[in-house]
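Example record used in the benchmark description.
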Amino acid sequence: MALGLFARLNYITPMTTTPKSAHRLSVAPMMEWTDRHCRYFLRLISPRAYLYTEMVTADAVVHGDRRRLLGFDGSEHPVALQLGGSDPARLAEAARIGEGFGYDEVNLNIGCPSDRVQSGRFGACLMAEPSLVAECVSAMKRAVSVPVTVKCRIGIDDQDTEESLDRFIDTVADAGCESFFVHARKAWLQGLSPKENRDIPPLDYDRVYRLKARRPELEIVINGGIATVANARSHLDHVDGVMLGRAAYHDPYVLAEAEQTLFDDAGEPPTRVEVLERFLPYAEDQLSHGVRLQQLTRHLLGLFHGQPKARAYRRLIAERAHLDGAGVEVLEDAISMMRDADRTAAVAAE
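Model output (structure tokens):
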């Protein structure tokens, strides 16, 4: 299995156990966002954050182009494969394939509320079928040696979140799942679009805290609406870890600040310009394999969020990266511009 130049140079043996601290900081799986190029970029900013693939259906893994769906760069470790599905045997086969590709963990999606996902009988609708989820987890655990984890909601539709969430967690934990990523908002499967469900109904962090207090032996990671490092730090007084979603995509350098705050032994983070410079060799390698520059740079737009010249940086990339034949000179020009902006800001501060 060829994972590319950087995988051959940087491959790390996957972990066979998940220590309690492994998910202190993680980045949520996000459809059409957390692809392999995004994850490589985020790893340059954050050495510690646990990264997750976009959700891939078990059927796609078993029958599809596995190299395209599952290939990743070795520097992404620790990285988990998120699967969607509800057939225990098919999920077990997909998990086994994922482990063969080198993933450190397999995560089962029980949180996505989209109509397409519901029609396939997976995602958040399975919150109503804890016994089936338990069968899926049990089958996956028998198939692989890496950890099998679950990402879920606090409930769906008119479920009572106290009773239903406790029943769901207890049933799935009895099947051997020790780590749960809990999005602290109900999934509303009828009457709301997935976009509307990002804000409605309100988040209920206290419900996740109560779950951790009731099941202290389980690893409970909280997700949903965590926008700042201060928010993240406050959650760690109650749960084992925090999972950032859109905040980490739109303002990815927040992960550097998070590392400094959440890990006592964090090293000095690279500057934003240094991150861009370190991305260049990867971009060159990917372009040589036929990847278009825009597929890479779309994930970089938020790197200078809130910084001087951020708008000019985004405009430079947006106007040039999509053009036929666009190459690393676009990134080199962006680096030059932002390096000058840093120098100007430093002089002004003196």
